[in-house]
Amino acid sequence: MKKTIETKTHKETFSLDEVAKQANGSVLMQVGGSIVLATICSDFASSSLGDFLPLTVQYIEKSYAAGKIPSGFFKRESRPSEFETLTSRIIDRTLRPLFPKGFYYPTQITVLVLSSDKQTDLQTLALNAASAALFVSNIPISQPACAVRIGRVHGNLCLNPDTATLNQSTLDLFVSGVHDNLLMIEMRSIAQGDKTSEIPENELMEILDFAKNEIAQKSALYVQNLAPYAKQKVQIALYNDINSPEIYDFIAQNYREPVYTALQAMAKSERASELTAVLESILADAHVVAQGWERESVDAMLQKYKKHAVRAMILDSKKRADGRGLRDVRAIDIHTNFLPCVHSSVLFTRGQTQALVTATIGSDSDAQSYELLSDKMGQKEHFMLHYNFPPFCVGEVGSIGSPGRRELGHGNLARRALEPSLVSKDAQTVRIVSEILESNGSSSMASVCGGSLALAAAGIPIHGLIAGVAMGLVTEDENYAILTDIMGLEDHDGDMDFKVAGSRNGITALQMDIKLGGLRMHILNEALLQAKEARDMILDIMENACKEIVLNDQILPSTLIFSIPPSKMVDVIGQAGKTIREIIEKFSVAIDLNKEIGEIKLIGSNKNDVNAAKDYIQTLVAGSAKPLVKELYNVGEQYMGKVKKIMQFGAFVELPKGQDGLVHISKITKKRGESIAQYLNEGQSVSVKITSLENNKIELNLVDS
Question: 515 pLDDT band (50/70/90 cuts)?
Fold first, then answer.
């Protein structure tokens, strides 16, 4: 059965009950030339322990979808790319809130990209297909979610832009929701050229309102067109959060104070050891022993009561477990450039969350190579941010391996937040690494703050500092409280995780996940303004720390970019690359050339060497038109010079009048294979004779003393 839905921007064709028929629900969805298969499978024979939905989402791109064979040694798809992992997270974060409360059955969502026209937005397509498959399945889901992407080109909003349009946009806003409620937001500003691109809060609210209206219309279209084809919903048991009311009431009446005392301790750590001590006390209670209550049931009810206590404390007393008010930010401490051999380092501590953030500067060859399904050839990423979350940061035992979905997601958010602040993204390769040393909420935003300071501490040009803060929400009917700088306890037991990063001028990146069925716009607006208040306060502290930064000049690489006529590039490269190799060896620099525009990028660990290399290249280029060395020297002249540098191919000798000449190895050693060091040492004075001044290069012979 095929069903086509006309939207404002494109046609969406759904093939229902044609493929993957043994799944609980399946949809083959097509937009343009792109087709994805979304399937839903759930195991109703078993359920997870506790109040957790074991939902697994896998978004998988097939290379054949774009007419490609996988690159690398193994010619089949293997580990997921970062884009696939992040897309899986987006689908999970949108669809998880749709499941009914008490649905704890293992469920798997799989989305396969079968065809790609290289212009369709695959993330939007994948999420909408997965939502449609879930809606028409026999799983008790009553409403379909959908997603839209908003761009802004030349000040005009673009609904669901294609790949080419998005590349010109200053905004990338991905929003999902159901009817009038927003479920998830991913937003980043995109700098075009050397201009900043922050989005002020009031502008963002207008854009989100536009997105909400589009989602509402699209949700109605999905219900109208897909509901007639939905399977009959299965009748299954939904687990009650409080499945042992008697135990819950006993804990509430007899252990209220110990629970509240434990919460105050938990406010200083994500570990639940204090609550475990309360559990042991309850299990040892004579009444509990007499009733024969099982440990599992008592633990479950204790966790339920703990959640109630956290929320009641916030809503009723407007106080939090650590004593803060709703708008208070935890104490911040910053240390910069304390690692002597690192290009830049920042230790950023906010409450019980601590991030060690470093920045390393490299050359073009250090850039990260990657390839998207829509790419004809590989691309390079010159700005990287890697986020690590070792188990010791929350006091746990565990192995440290390759990054998981959480680490990739947090690192991607922090990278998106910082990237617009770079004055020139591709001028040099920069790698930021955030090592989370302690975590009690908002470690990704600590990475943003530390990362921005690390850029400044490395002397990298930025438009301004970027700060981030995580916001929370607790609601009960019409009563709600918005929390600034949430800790782990509030993240776990709250209703929203809302991370906002930006400068004083506006927002550069935003991520929102809602655990409710949706979020009302006036609450979102209030949360944005409260986040700006906190961000400005954090920026005050960061700016003061920035004034105290002392650059590690002795180890900090220097980068110079300059241009020469493109036709002169051949003089820099030399025959078979001989000249450029000599420059690299002589001045210990890395050289990146853009032959089309005549741009030369020099990177070296010593600023003087980089400047000397630039002067040498400019003299070399000028000398190809006017032989400067012939105005200073004559062939046959003899001088006393100093051995400046010894290379594998010869020795550079510094001559009077400031020029260097080369004594080739064949003029130094007596036998093939001998080392120059057997005859010459750097700094040694030698007598030399000029044998050639061709091509503005001085060739020398040693003169026997």
Answer: confident
Q: Among 672, 671, 653, which residue's Cα sits nearest to residue 663?
A: 653
Tell me how far apart the alpha carbons of residues 581 and 356 are, in angstroms, rounded to a whole number.
38
Q: Which of 342, 359, 350 is nearest to 421 (CA)?
A: 359
Joined tokens for residue 357: 């953030």
Query: How much is the CA Rg of the chain, to the nearest whole Å?
Result: 32
Residue type, 254: N
Residue 194 host element (H or E)? none
Residues 6 or more apart from 478 whose CB is under 8 A from it? none
| Contact status, residue 368 vs residue 415, Cβ threshold 8 Å | no
CB atoms within 10 A of CB 604: 22
| Closest residue by Cα to residue 687 from 664, 700, 703, 676 | 703
Q: How confident is the model at residue 628 (pLDDT cuts 50, 70, 90)?
A: low
Q: What is the mean pLDDT of the chain?
A: 88
Rounded average pLDDT over 660-666? 88
Question: Which run of H or of E encompasses 591?
Answer: strand 589-594
Chain mean position to CA 285: 49
pLDDT value for 508: 96
Q: Which of 335, 347, 366, 357 lies closest to 411, judged by CA?
A: 357
- Which residues partner with 600 through β-bridges? 562, 593
What count of residues does the chain have?
A: 705
- pTM tops 0.85, yes or no: no
C-beta of residue 649 within 8 angstroms of C-beta of residue 586:
no
Please give the backbone phi and psi of residue 593, each rounded to the nearest 5 degrees, phi first. -115, 135
Whether 602 has a pLDDT exceeding 50, the answer reads: yes
* Nearest residue to 300 (alpha-carbon basis) of 508, 113, 48, 543: 48
* Two tokens, residue 452: 């921005």
Strand order in the sheet with 2-6: 2-6, 11-16, 25-31, 34-42, 107-115, 55-61
Cβ 128 vs Cβ 12: under 8 Å: yes
Q: How far apart are CA 368 and CA 431, in angstroms?
A: 10
Structure tokens of 284? Answer: 């040892």
CB contact at 8 A, 517 and 180: no
Closest Cα partner for 492 from 439, 418, 540, 445? 439
Beta bridge partners of 346: 336, 357
* Dist CA 483 CA 113 (whole Å): 39
Q: Which residue has the tokens 């004809």?
A: 376
Give, as one character, the DSSP assignment of residue 199: B
247, 293 Cβ separation under 8 angstroms: yes
Measure the CA dihedral 420/423/428/430, to 10°. -40
Q: Which of 297, 296, 322 is nearest to 310 (CA)?
A: 322
Please tell me the distance from the alpha carbon of residue 54 to that of residue 49, in angstroms, as a whole number: 10
Q: How far apart are CA 231 and CA 302, in angstroms?
A: 38
Task: Give percent above pLDDT 90 in the chain.
Answer: 50
Closest CA to 109 of 82, 139, 70: 139
Q: Which of 48, 26, 44 is nearest to 36 (CA)?
A: 26
Long-range contacts from 155-161, C-beta under 8 angstroms, 24+ separation: 157/207, 157/210, 159/8, 159/9, 159/214, 160/7, 160/9, 160/10, 160/121, 160/124, 161/121
Q: What's the CA gap between 206 and 212, in Å, rounded?
A: 10
- Average pLDDT of the residues in 506-528: 87
Question: Cα(66)–Cα(68) distance, rounded to whole angstroms?
Answer: 6
Burial class (CB in 10 A: 0-12, 13-18, 19+), 193: exposed
In which band, very low, low, confident or very high, does the pLDDT at 627 lie, cut at 50, 70 and 90?
very low
Range 101-125 average pLDDT: 93
Cβ neighbour number for residue 570 with a 10 Å cutoff:
12
172: how many CB neighbours lie within 10 A of its CB? 18
280: number of CA atoms within 13 Å, CB side?
7
